[in-house]
C-alpha cells in the first residue's frame, strides 16, 4: 500500500492538474453518499468535529476521508484539521493508498474555490482579499492566483502577526501579498474576497461589497458557522458547491433560509451545473456573486486519485 505524507501529497497535487481533476469529477458519475458529521466533546474547549466522507467511481476507485477539526488547536500552535484519506480499488476493494487528509483537504478546498471563481468572479479581477490565517489561507491565495493576473493580494486575520507570517510565506513563493488590518477598507476594494475561517459570526458585511465583487465562503461547515451576513445574501447571486450539502450544513445558507433572506429556489446553481453548462454563472459585469462551499467527498476522491496516479507514475 502506498503512503503519502503531507509533503508528498502537496507535491502530487499541482494546482492546474487538481483544478482540472475536480472539474472532471463534478461533471462525471461519482457516487457520493451524505457524509457523517459528529460533534466530539473536548473538556474545557469548544466541541471538535469528526467527519467521515465516502465516495466512489463504480468499478474504478472507492475512497473515504476521516477528518477531525479541533478549533482549540489554535491555542496549541497546531493545525485545526487532521485527517487521512483511504483509497481502494473499485474492482477488488484492495487498499491502494493512505494519503495525508489535512493537506488533501486544504488543497482541494482551495482548488474548488478557484474552479468556481472561473465561472463567477470578474474575468479581469485584479485584487484578492483572503480572510483567515489558518491552513487554508496560503492555499486559497495560491489557487486563486492560478491563471489570474492579480496585482494586489491582501491577507486579514484577527491575529496580525499570523497574517504577516502568511504574507511572508506567500511572498517567498513570488506572490505580491500584504497583511491588512482594516478589513472593511480591504473588502470594499477587493474584486474577490475568499473567507476560510471557523467564525460563528459574520465577518464580511454585505454593504461593503462593490458592484461586480465575488464572495467566496469556504470556512464554515456547520449550521452555526457564519462568515457573511444576510445583506450579502440579499445583494448577491448565490451559488453552492452542492445544494444537498449547503442547505443542510452551511450556516451561511441555513441561517438565511430560516430568516427568509434566501429561498431554496433563489440558489442559482450548484457547481456541477456550472461546469456542465446547464445553468449560467456570472451574466453581468456588475453582478455580485457569492459561492458557498461546505466541501464534497467527490473533491477528495478526485484529489486522492490524482495523488495516487501521480505517485504511481513516479515509481514506474
Features:
2 domains, Rossmann fold, six-stranded mixed β-sheet, 316 residues, eight-stranded parallel β-sheet, ornithine cyclodeaminase, domain 1, alpha/beta
Approximately what portion of the residues adopt beta-strand conformation?
15-25%
End-to-end distance: 15 Å
- Return Rg in Å: 18 Å
CATH topology of the largest domain: Rossmann fold
Query: Helicity level, as a percent range?
Result: 25-40%
Query: What is the H/E string?
Result: EHHEEEEEHEHEHEHEEHEHHEHEH
Q: Domains counted in the coordinates: how many?
A: 2
CATH-defined architecture of the largest domain = 3-Layer(aba) Sandwich
Task: Give the number of DSSP strands.
Answer: 14
CATH homologous superfamily of the largest domain - what is it? NAD(P)-binding Rossmann-like Domain
CATH class of the largest domain reads Alpha Beta
The major β-sheet equals:
8 strands, parallel
Instruction: Estimate the global geometry from the Cα principal axes.
Output: globular
Strand order, main sheet: write it out: 9-8-7-10-11-14-12-13
Mean pLDDT: 95
Low-confidence stretches: none
GO biological process, one term: carboxylic acid metabolic process
Protein name: Ornithine cyclodeaminase family protein
Family: Belongs to the ornithine cyclodeaminase/mu-crystallin family.
GO molecular function, one term: oxidoreductase activity
Amino acid at each position: 500500500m502506498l503512503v503519502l505524507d503531507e509533503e508528498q501529497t502537496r507535491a502530487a497535487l499541482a494546482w492546474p492538474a487538481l483544478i482540472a481533476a475536480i472539474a472532471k469529477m463534478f461533471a462525471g458519475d461519482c457516487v457520493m453518499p451524505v457524509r457523517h458529521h459528529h460533534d466530539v466533546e473536548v473538556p474545557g474547549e469548544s466541541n471538535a468535529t469528526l467527519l467521515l466522507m465516502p465516495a466512489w467511481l463504480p468499478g474504478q476507485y472507492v475512497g473515504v476521508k476521516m477528518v477531525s477539526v479541533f478549533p482549540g488547536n489554535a491555542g496549541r500552535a497546531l493545525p485545526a484539521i487532521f485527517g487521512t484519506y483511504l483509497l481502494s480499488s473499485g474492482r477488488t476493494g484492495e487498499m491502494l493508498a493512505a494519503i495525508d487528509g489535512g493537506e488533501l483537504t486544504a488543497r482541494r478546498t482551495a482548488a474548488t474555490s478557484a474552479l468556481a471563481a472561473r465561472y463567477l468572479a470578474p474575468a479581469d479581477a485584479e485584487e484578492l482579499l483572503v480572510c483567515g490565517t489558518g491552513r487554508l489561507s496560503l492555499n486559497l491565495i495560491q489557487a486563486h492566483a492560478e491563471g489570474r493576473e492579480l496585482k494586489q493580494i491582501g491577507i486579514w486575520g484577527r491575529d496580525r502577526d499570523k497574517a504577516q507570517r502568511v504574507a511572508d510565506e506567500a511572498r517567498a513563493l513570488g506572490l505580491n501579498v500584504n497583511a491588512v488590518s482594516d478589513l472593511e477598507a480591504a473588502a470594499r476594494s477587493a474584486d474577490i474576497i475568499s473567507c476560510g475561517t471557523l467564525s460563528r459570526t459574520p465577518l464580511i458585511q454585505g454593504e461593503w461589497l462593490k458592484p461586480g465583487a465575488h464572495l467566496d465562503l469556504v470556512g464554515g461547515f456547520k449550521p452555526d458557522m457564519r462568515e457573511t451576513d444576510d445583506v450579502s445574501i440579499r445583494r448577491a447571486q448565490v451559488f453552492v458547491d452542492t445544494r444537498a450539502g449547503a442547505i443542510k450544513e452551511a450556516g451561511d445558507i441555513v441561517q438565511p433560509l430560516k430568516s427568509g433572506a434566501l429561498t431554496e429556489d433563489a440558489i442559482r446553481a450548484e457547481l456541477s451545473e456550472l461546469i456542465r453548462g446547464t445553468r449560467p454563472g456570472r451574466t453581468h459585469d456588475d453582478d455580485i456573486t457569492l459561492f458557498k462551499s461546505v466541501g464534497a467527498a467527490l473533491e477528495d476522491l478526485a484529489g486522492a486519485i490524482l495523488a495516487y496516479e501521480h505517485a504511481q507514475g513516479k515509481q514506474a
